[in-house]
Structures are given as structure tokens and as C-alpha cells.
Write a structure and sequence with these properties.
Number of helices of chain B: 14
Radius of gyration of chain B: 28 Å
Radius of gyration of chain A: 22 Å
CATH topology of the domain at 1-153 in chain B: Serine Threonine Protein Phosphatase 5, Tetratricopeptide repeat
Helix content of chain B: over 70%
Strand order of the largest sheet of chain A: 2-3-1-4-5-6-7-8
CATH architecture of chain A: 3-Layer(aba) Sandwich
Distance between the termini of chain B: 63 Å
Number of helices of chain A: 6
Shape of chain A: elongated
Shape of chain B: elongated
CATH topology of chain A: Rossmann fold
CATH class of the domain at 1-153 in chain B: Mainly Alpha
CATH class of chain A: Alpha Beta
Number of strands of chain A: 8
Structural class of chain B: mainly alpha
Order of helices and strands of chain B: HHHHHHHHHHHHHH
Order of helices and strands of chain A: HHEHEEEHEEEHHE
CATH superfamily of the domain at 1-153 in chain B: Tetratricopeptide repeat domain
Number of domains of chain A: 1
CATH architecture of the domain at 1-153 in chain B: Alpha Horseshoe
Largest sheet of chain A: 8 strands, mixed
Number of strands of chain B: 0
Oligomer: heterodimer
Strand content of chain B: under 5%
Structural class of chain A: alpha/beta
């Protein structure tokens, strides 16, 4: 009996000791970017015409993880007197009256065109790749010591009619005026 | 019961029955009748006599009385009976110059050692949030006794498995009770670190420790909601990066110990993505895709 009990305990111990834990499958990058974007929405000011509707539009172009994150956590959430509506964009022609347009690195070839459209529509163009800030992006996500931060292009913001506010300057990694 | 016959014969061989012998005799009678508590009080009184205190057979008998009490007891009570049984058999061994009781003592001690081990495993399985028996104490008792019985064998293999099992149980408790339970996750980390102290090359300990650190960071990030303000977001990110940085060397080690395993490659992929090391993330992703496609 003693041997049987010990064997059972040993097998139990061995099985438990050799099992592996499971990784949390949170899409960390998308979560952080999503939160940044929602906070940008809360802290920036757009042209008055944007406040005439009840909807605050955010468009995502080229990053499905980010789109899913925004849909999951922020769609229908309030921003001042408006509610967020997240839209997935497959073509730049779809852009019209969005307060925020996110363009990911996989669509970087469309940056110049997207920048022109954002400027015309008065949208806040956000990107996440090197060089974007000098090609018409207003906010570009950058990596600083393994964390996601962002650079601001104040001149482009003014051109697009967006007031970024002082607090955004404090949070930014770098401010560009060109 | 073989030892009982031996013991009875030894007692019968003496002609004059002194008071100390009478106590042992009475204890034997009580034992035979199954009155173990009575036998216990008689044998405990008997060892106040120097002759009995120096007798390997009395200590062997005392060990058996306490062993029976342990077997019949319910949970908490049993622990002290078992400890006394162990102490008695050990003392009998130390006193047994002719070795007459030695084999029986060793057999009984091996049995008791197995019960410590079983209790250690059982109490790990029954660990609860803020409760349950202390598995470490049971294992410590097993370890001491096993090393006393077979010092040349050691207990490294059992101890390594035990520490990993304990760590995993605390991790499960933490997962079940979510973020507020810092104590459990710190214990899980500590037991994995102790396991690595015994064997730095252990795959599971390295892998699971990496996962714990990674999951801690991912859990914090997962807690981000529409209520999270910018200052809080920045603070969360800073804390998470610390967790992810802690996770990386353990996952790298796990990968080096068992190269090209899907789990560790996936781990390295996730950790590097969380650290925003995108080039390295893509390297692991491509390696993983290659393995999965073959």
C-alpha cells in the first residue's frame, strides 16, 4: 500500500511539475495604441464643425488588431457630448468626416495621399512608422526604451485645424515644428 | 506484526518484573487490545526510567504505538503522533548496538517518510487562497527523514518537482483570484527561483517563470480600459516593460534548453512583441511559421 501511495504521489508530482503555464494572449501593442488614440481624442480639439454631430469617428487603415481593440473597448464610448464610432477603411476614398485616421506601416505607401485627405478633411492623422512625421502625419507612434510613445507635428496640426493642447506636448516624446 | 512477537518474546525472557518493565508490559497489553492511547501514556511513563530510556526495544515499541495513533488519527492530531513515532524509531536505531530492532525501525521510518511525501503532494493539490496545510513543512520532514535514511541518494529530483508543483499551484490560485492576490504570485515566482537554484537547466522552471513574468505585464495591459487616462497609461507601460524584461532571459534559456519548441518560440515572439522589438518578433514569427508548416 505504501508503495502504491508513493507511486501515485510521485506520478502526480511529476505530471504537475512538467506541465506548462499558458501565455496571456493579450495583444499588448494594439491595447496600448488603442488607449493612446482614445486619450488623443479626449485631449485634442477639432474644428467646430466636427461637434455638430453626435458621432466621433475614428478610422483605421491597415491594422486589424488595432481596429478590433478599438471596437472592443471604445466603440460607443463617450467623448464629451459625442460617442465614438470606429470604422475599418479599405480604401482612402472612404475617408470623409473622421476626427481621427490611423494609417499603419503596412499602408505607408499611401501616406502622402492620406495626409492630403486628412488636411482637407481636418482629420488627425496618426501613424506608426519611421519618417511619417515629416511626411504629413500629426502623431507618430515611436518606440522609446521598449515602450510606445509618440512624436507630434505641431505645424501639421495647425494646418489641419486641430488644437493639440499643452498637455499633449508634455506627454509627447518629441515635438516637431516644420 | 512480526515485531510484536519479537517484542513479546523479549519481555517474557526476563524473570523478575520491575516497575519499569511492568509499565512496558502493560503498554504491550493495551497495544494488543487496540487501546493505543492507554499504551501511549504507559510507554511515555516508562521512559522516565533510565533503563527504558536507554532501551532500543522500548523506543521501537513506542514508535509503533505512536505510528498506530497516527494511522488512526484524523488529520491535525496525526502530525504530532507521526513526528513522535519518527523520533522514537530514530532513537531506537541510535541505541540499537546489536541491530536487532534496526531493520524494523528502518522499515517503519520508510513508511513514515512516504506518508510525509504523500502529505506534501496532497497538500499542494489542496492549496487554497489564504488556506490549506503547509506543504513545505511536510516536504521538509520528508527531506530530513529521507536524507537521514539514505543520505547517499539525496532528494534533489523530488525537491525540484515539488518546488515546481508548488509554484504552479500558487500561480493557479493567483489566476483564479485575479490581480489582488499579490502574495500567491510572489510565492510562485519564489518557488520557481528556488527550483532554478537547484537546477538552472530545468526547462519547465525557466519556461513557466518567463510566462509568469510575461503574464503579469500582459494582465496589467489587459486592464487598460476607456477609463485609463494618459498618465496612468504611461505608468502602466513602464511597469509592464519591467515584467517583460524579466521574462525574456528565462524564455531565451528555455529555448536554448529545448531548441525549436513551438511553445518557447511563441513565448519569445510574444515577449519581443510586447517589448516592441519588432524585428526580433518577426524573426521568431518566421521561424515558428516554418516549423508549423513542416
Amino acid at each position: 500500500m505504501k508503495q502504491i501511495l508513493t507511486l501515485i504521489a510521485t506520478v502526480t508530482l511529476s505530471l504537475a511539475a512538467h506541465s506548462q503555464l499558458e501565455m496571456n494572449n493579450t495583444k499588448t501593442v494594439a491595447v496600448v495604441k488603442g488607449s493612446y488614440i482614445y486619450n488623443f481624442a479626449k485631449n485634442c480639439q477639432w474644428d467646430e464643425s466636427f461637434y455638430e454631430t453626435e458621432v466621433f469617428k475614428m478610422a483605421v487603415y491597415g491594422d486589424s488588431d488595432l481596429y478590433n481593440e478599438l471596437i472592443d473597448k471604445y466603440d460607443n464610448r463617450p467623448i464629451n457630448n459625442q460617442v465614438v464610432e470606429v470604422v475599418w477603411v479599405t480604401d482612402l476614398d472612404m475617408l470623409f468626416d473622421e476626427q481621427i485616421v490611423f494609417l499603419s506601416e503596412v499602408k505607408k505607401n499611401d501616406l502622402i495621399l492620406a495626409s492630403d485627405i486628412a488636411e482637407e478633411n481636418g482629420s488627425l492623422l496618426i501613424t506608426d512608422f519611421n519618417g511619417a512625421i515629416s511626411l504629413g502625419s500629426i502623431i507618430n507612434f515611436v518606440i522609446v526604451e521598449n515602450t510606445i510613445s509618440f512624436d507630434l507635428n505641431l505645424t501639421q496640426a495647425v494646418t489641419n485645424g486641430i488644437n493639440l493642447g499643452n498637455r499633449m506636448n508634455n506627454w509627447a516624446n518629441k515635438i516637431v515644428e516644420q | 506484526m512480526k515485531y510484536l512477537l519479537l517484542f513479546t518474546l523479549a519481555l517474557l525472557s526476563s524473570n523478575a518484573i520491575s516497575q519499569n518493565e511492568e509499565l512496558v508490559n502493560n503498554a504491550l497489553e493495551a497495544y494488543k487490545e487496540g487501546s493505543f492511547l492507554e499504551a501511549k501514556s504507559l510507554i511515555d511513563e516508562s521512559i522516565t526510567f533510565v533503563e527504558n530510556d536507554m532501551s532500543p526495544k522500548v523506543w521501537n515499541f513506542r514508535g509503533h504505538i505512536y505510528k498506530q495513533l497516527y494511522k488512526e488519527s484524523i488529520q491535525d492530531q496525526g502530525a504530532s503522533y507521526r513526528d513522535e513515532a519518527v523520533a522514537s524509531f530514530k532513537k531506537s536505531c541510535e541505541l540499537s548496538s546489536d541491530g536487532q530492532y534496526y531493520p524494523d525501525n528502518i522499515k517503519a521510518l520508510e513508511y513514515l517518510s512516504a506518508t510525509y511525501f504523500n502529505d506534501a503532494v496532497d497538500s499542494v493539490l489542496k492549496l487554497k487562497y489564504n488556506g490549506g496545510d503547509n506543504p513545505v513543512q511536510f516536504f521538509q520532514n520528508f527531506k530530513e527523514l529521507k536524507l537521514w535514511l539514505k543520505p547517499q541518494e539525496g532528494v534533489k529530483a523530488e525537491e525540484l518537482m515539488f518546488l515546481k508543483m508548488l509554484a504552479q499551484s500558487y500561480e493557479k490560485i493567483h489566476t483564479k483570484h485575479d490581480s489582488e492576490d499579490r502574495e500567491s504570485i510572489l510565492k510562485a515566482i519564489s518557488y520557481y527561483e528556488q527550483a532554478l537554484g537547484l537546477d538552472a537547466q530545468d526547462y519547465e522552471a525557466n519556461f513557466n517563470l518567463a510566462i509568469i513574468h510575461y503574464n503579469e505585464g500582459a494582465r496589467l495591459i489587459g486592464g487598460i480600459s476607456y477609463k485609463t487616462g494618459m498618465d496612468e497609461l504611461i505608468s502602466i507601460q513602464t511597469r509592464c516593460v519591467e515584467y517583460f524584461r524579466h521574462a525574456l532571459p528565462f524564455m531565451k534559456k528555455a529555448e536554448s534548453l529545448r531548441p525549436n519548441r513551438v511553445e518557447s518560440l511563441k513565448g519569445l515572439m510574444f515577449i519581443n512583441r510586447a517589448l516592441n522589438n519588432f524585428d526580433i518578433y518577426l524573426e521568431y514569427k518566421s521561424k515558428l511559421d516554418e516549423i508549423l508548416n513542416n
